[in-house]
Design a protein that fits this description.
- The structure is a homodimer.
- Chain A is an alpha+beta fold.
- Chain A folds into 2 domains: 106 residues, Aminotransferase class 4, branched-chain amino acid transferase, N-terminal domain (D-amino Acid Aminotransferase, Chain A, domain 1), CATH 3.30.470.10; 160 residues, Alpha-Beta Barrel (D-amino Acid Aminotransferase, Chain A, domain 2).
- Chain A is built from 10 helices and 15 strands.
- The N and C termini of chain A lie far apart (66 Å).
- At the A-B interface, strand 1, helix 1, helix 2, helix 4 and strand 5 of A face strand 1, helix 1, helix 2, helix 4 and strand 5 of B.
- Chains A, B: One of its GO terms (cellular component) is cytosol.
Chain lengths: 277, 277
């Protein structure tokens, strides 16, 4: 007899129920902002999707096919968040990947409702008590194994906007849904992502901005004490753009500081530009 | 506008497409053997499912509901493998878990085709080049984040039956789909699972057998050198039962050794009993 499946007690499509995304998280994803008929930073998103697929030995969907999916789903939406998931097709029971072919989901969510104060006065970050698990083969990849982030998102204090997560040696790597930058002596420092963490496209874009602006920028091992000693700090992702930090643990900043403000303007991210003059 | 979703370019049910199993691997699972009208070790499986759900703050489905699902799906199958997945219900975008309620999938797969030699002469294990990521909050839990095991299952040599995986300090923790035991001076040693690995129900059952047989048994940090020095070794899981090791790296054993053979009989696992006299 062949494979059969029940979902909530009802017979369901066995192909869908065998998805390796469901069983193992064997796939990658992108979360992006849609605005006025276009996916913001589409070229960067697609390039990162292709590279993340390669890390899992997965053939990525054609870029035009994804662009067509987005256009279909976004008809009638002026602003929205889209999520693209590419997962390995089912091919029998067991961990062994028998397929390189991916299947794709594209989802459209209601537009985010940004708070002006997050951009104009900054947000509050705290250190998560949940550490990041380290798998060097997956470092930097935006894959579907996200329980670290789910665990870190439980039990936040009400006044906290983002939690920062550390690796085993105590170095800060990223926020639960963002990359992190510190500003020190007029230069940028962002954590190394060689053991864990996601190399997000907004992080990439900010490093490009820094190069254009002749701002020194480097990747480094960044401990909480280094962040406490920073002149400015901010977190970023493709949906929110850049959020300056106004507080981390006992440290407060007047946010955004001058370097962060200049980067916010240079970034060209539409939600950021809505709020910085 | 509400959430909409495409799967492979076609509009699909947005509820299914938002499953937190798909997006984050936010759930747990069980793989079990069905034989002659019953799930082998159902009580142990259900107990472990309830405990694994609790680790993710997830309400488990009622045991009778799951038993009814299995009975419906297994009608007409004398032997099969069943998989139960319990994942958190979707509740908005983002990592934060807003729901404790789980949704369930139950799948039936064709019966395994055991090879008599695996039980009577043993199997070959090799050390995986892929390490286990460590998340103490998830240690022992059979959750849906399984990329470590997917990566470890690539590129096996053709004569290898199972790969053993190590944690960061080099200690051996488990097989890619099994737990590991070494026999030394007439007693059992199985790796500690306080940092990573799954505490499988066959491991549990073997420790119970050892107690009944007055065999000393302990959990310990087990390095590859300790395994090479063992008198006997075996791997186990709920589907295969017990596979004695006849080779690990350069070490060979005459398998099964006397302690392993006694445990195979005492275990009462039907596939094992099919092959040991």
């Amino acid at each position: 007899m062949s494979v059969e499946a029940l979902h909530e007690g009802r017979l369901c499509d066995a192909g869908t129920a065998q998805s390796r995304a469901l069983h193992y998280g064997d796939g990658v994803f992108r979360t992006l902002l849609w605005r006025d008929g276009a996916a913001i930073d589409w070229a960067l998103h697609h390039d990162k999707l292709v590279r993340d697929c390669a890390a899992l030995s997965l053939d990525p969907p054609d870029g035009q096919v994804l662009a067509d999916d987005l256009a279909l789903l976004m008809r009638g939406r002026s602003q929205a968040v889209a999520k693209i998931i590419v997962a390995r097709r089912a091919g029998g029971r067991g961990y062994q990947a028998r397929e390189r072919a991916g299947e794709r989901w594209v989802l459209a969510y209601p537009a985010p409702a940004p708070r002006a104060a997050d951009y104009r006065e900054g947000v509050v970050a705290a250190l998560s008590t949940v550490g990041l698990s380290e798998q060097p083969l997956l470092a930097g990849i935006k894959h579907l194994n996200r329980l670290d982030q789910v665990l870190a998102s439980r039990d936040w204090a009400a006044d906290v906007d983002e939690v920062l997560m550390c690796r085993g040696d105590g170095a800060v790597v990223c926020g639960s849904r963002s990359n992190l930058f510190a500003v020190r002596d007029g230069g940028l420092i962002t954590p190394m992502l060689d053991r864990c963490g996601v190399a997000g496209i907004m992080r990439h874009r900010i490093l490009d901005c820094a190069a254009r602006m002749n701002l020194p920028a480097r990747e480094a091992v960044l401990h909480p004490a280094d962040l406490l000693a920073a002149d400015e700090a901010f977190v970023c992702n493709a949906v929110i753009g850049i959020w300056p930090l106004r507080q981390f643990a006992a440290r407060t900043w007047r946010a955004p500081g001058p370097v962060t403000r200049a980067l916010m303007r240079e970034s060209g991210h539409p939600l950021v530009l809505d709020h910085v003059g």
